[in-house]
Amino acid sequence: xxRRQFVGLAAAIAAVPAGLRAASGEENAVRQRVKDVxxxxxxxxxxxxxxxxxxxxxxxxxxxxTDLEGDIKEFGARPKDFRRTDVIDFKHxxxxxxxxxxxxxxxxxxxxxxxxxxxxxxLETMILRKxxxxxxxxxxxxxxxDTFIVTPVxxxx
Length: 157
Prior knowledge:
six-stranded mixed beta sheet
């Protein structure tokens, strides 16, 4: 290996960690935005929630499609003493330019007047778009896990 090849190889190897750090920084920014969205949702902070979303945001759950205004209406249906804590378990985060997605499990503990304390769990995908220097949520697809009953399918049945 001559000196030119060695320098080229060394430069390529040195460039890899820098690229990984940049991707990791963006992935961390996406994770933080997901957490911010759920913090705003949990506390009922409509202004913060709205600021975290794109103008064409959609929420998909239980066969329904809701826009941002429809999603925010749910805030008003809560009792005044509503409390929710979330635990988010990220399974995959991918960043590709100005678009990213996160796949995660979210477990919540909810309390409030008028209903028994509950601990729902979902598997969700959030799609985000970068506007300026900030990631904003464009879509959440939510599958509630504790409502599914799995029935095995048998051949010939």
